[in-house]
Amino acid sequence: MDKCDSHNSFNCDVFNEQEHQLYAKDSPIIQAWYYYAKIRALYLIGLYDEALAIIEHIHIIPMGVPGQIKTPEAYFYSCLILLAKPETYLDSSKYQDMFKHMFERLKTWSDSCEDNFLHKVKLIEAELASLNNQPFYEVFDLYHQAIELAKAADYKLIEALANELLANYLVKQSKLEYVMHHQQISQTIYNHLSVNVKAANSSLPNDEIPVLTSNSSIEVSTSSIALNSMMQAANVLSEEMVIDKLMNKLIAIVMEFSGASKVALLLKKNSKWWVENIGILNEPNFQFEPLPYSKSTDIPASVIRYVIRTQSMALIGNVSVDSVFTNDPYIEKHQPKSILCLPLIYKNRINSIVYLENELTTDAFGQNHLDMLNLLIGQMAISIENSVLYSQMEEEVVARTNDLEKSLKQLKQTQNHLVESEKMASLGRLVAGVAHELNTPLGVSVTASSNLLELIEQLRVAFEAQTLTRKEFVSSIANINQAGSIVYRNLNRAAELVANFKLVAVDTSNDEEREINLKEYLTDLVSSLSPALKKGHHTIQIDCSDDLVIKVDPGVIAHIFTNLILNSLIHGFEDTQEGQITITAELEGSKLRVDFQDNGKGITKEVQSKIFEPFYTTKRGAGGSGLGMNIVYNLIVQKLKGTISCHSEVGNGTKFTILANF
Fold first, then answer.
1. Distance between CA atoms of residues 153 and 207, nearest Å
2. N or C: which end of the chain has fewer CB within 10 A?
């Protein structure tokens, strides 16, 4: 509308701020336009205290102009204003909350549209990193990203502002040789945009602005490019964690920025310094084996000792006239012209040393090289520390993995031994039960057969004496027939027990798969366990299809159900004389589902959570080994590739559900 009376006010012949504010007090739209323009103007002018008062009204802008670009623009400048007043910002939780809210919104918008907002986010991040005294290369890189992004998106004003803020930061860091480049860019853009208040002011006091010669602009531009390249190199180092790859990259970067013809990297291992890697210009295939620096013939040991002892840099511009190191065997033999040896210090200790030499030129390592390398040193030390820790961690992981594999192997051997032991123990219990059961029919058979022999002898004597009457003959034949029947029945029972025992015993000791009729096999198994069942008058019911055939190692089935049945007898029917066990089996697709249920006393929640753990037993000291259910679990999981679960309530019995793959 007209030229303002001063830089800090919008007042002119046709506009008055006070009157405008009174006019706009009931109009959020008009207030939003005013506050947005005022916040931006006060920041660009540098009136941060006045700007803080305007920020108090920042909430009006999104209310007055929702969805318009003025809201993120106002948030952007408000964040910069708060960071420009660090003493106020850091001491006020209110301002910190405001900053967090506005910055988070900007980042959200940046995720949706990088062209419009990412450069703003990066510039705020750069100012925040500067305020927090983050490493130089990190702060510089953020400013550089903000400049490049603003330039690419054609945000000229913010490109100029980012260059100006970077120049201000470089002044604080005493990097005056790089300031002019960014200062010139910002002034040129401000002039082009007619931002007169910016074009008239410089971020540097007059006595600090470097004097420009005819080649200054070229030199400054070249320096800035080198600095950008160095920052990119620092990023490359920060991203590498593998020590061997890091050393190769570090040597290549140092050689590039220093002009050295040889670069060596030394690391401390087991309290001794080792030459870990060496790079030689124009010899990309140079092979080197790490060894202690005192034994190396590729570097001067005396220079390394000096750096280790003093923890300071060794710079030798002309080796031939330096009396301290000229007698070093390496120097006498190879006659390098210039040497630079830098200690890389991390947390007040040297964690590595970089050795550089130039074999052709004296004073090869000038101040520019030192400045570049000094900027890189911090990242180099951090990267080496991280990669060494990463390498140590990898070695520990490998060592622990080997230990775990060894322990696992021993555990499997122990487990197999325990399984075999439990197999033999189960077989032993089976043998004992069958032997006890066989004693009854065999004992009866022995008694009946001896009675039979006696009856036959009496009949023979009477027959030979011709005193045998018809009545006595009929009676003797009846007694003989009865005794024979007793012998026959009991021997048949014994033969049945032996057959069942033989089947289960063979299956228990073999590991070969074969097809079995599940119902018939379980029936034979239950029959072999009848001695244990009869002690308490317990019964087992098998609900299974008559034609359910599976291909399996029968010994696995024998072990699983023997242990489940004995578990019910020992634990579930401990106080019960007439227990009932039901085994239900059916195919569900390719899976076999078996429900094993008893009506015993049940299991507590605590016991259920540990029932499959090895060596866990509630019968410790009473013959319980704690391996029975663990073996059941392992056989089902490992041999049948299935699962087993336990469901029980105290007083309501226990149910095991098995799902097996066939």
1. 35
2. N
Quick one: tokens of 274? 């080792």
Q: Using an 8 Å Cβ cutoff, are 41 and 51 in contact? A: no
Q: 350, 356 in Cβ contact below 8 A?
A: no
Q: Note whether 322 and 341 are within 8 A (CB).
A: no
Q: Which of 335, 339, 317 is nearest to 327 (CA)?
A: 335
CA 469 from centroid of its chain's CA atoms:
100
Q: How far are the Cα atoms of 476, 480, 559 from residue 483, in angstroms, in the given order?
A: 11, 5, 39
Q: Roughly how many angstroms between the first and final C-alpha of the chain, as a whole number?
A: 89
Q: Are strands 272-280 and 262-269 parallel, antiparallel or unpaired?
A: antiparallel
Report d(CA 539, CA 618) in Å as an integer.
Answer: 24
Amino acid at 221: S
Give pLDDT tens digits for 533-542: 777 788 899 9
Residue 428 has pLDDT above 80, yes or no: no
Give the pairing type, strands 539-544 and 338-346: unpaired
When computed from its CA atoms, the radius of gyration of the chain, rounded to whole angstroms, is 47
Q: Which helix (H) or strand (E) holds 339?
A: strand 338-346
404 contacts: CB under 8 Å, gap ≥ 6? none
| Helix axes of 518-528 and 470-509: crossing angle, nearest 10 degrees | 110
E strand map for 555-642: 580-588, 591-598
Q: How far apart are CA 72 and CA 66, in angstroms?
A: 10
**Cβ–Cβ under 8 Å, residues 188 and 159:** no
Instruction: Tell me the C-alpha distance between 477 and 308, whole Å.
Output: 116
For 86-136, write each residue's pLDDT tens digit: 988 888 999 999 999 999 999 999 999 999 999 999 999 999 999 999 887
> Tokens at residue 586, please?
């059916």
**Residue 337 tokens, joined:** 């012209």
Most confident of 177-191, 561-575, 647-661: 647-661
Burial (CB < 10 A; 0-12, 13-18, 19+), residue 37, is: middle
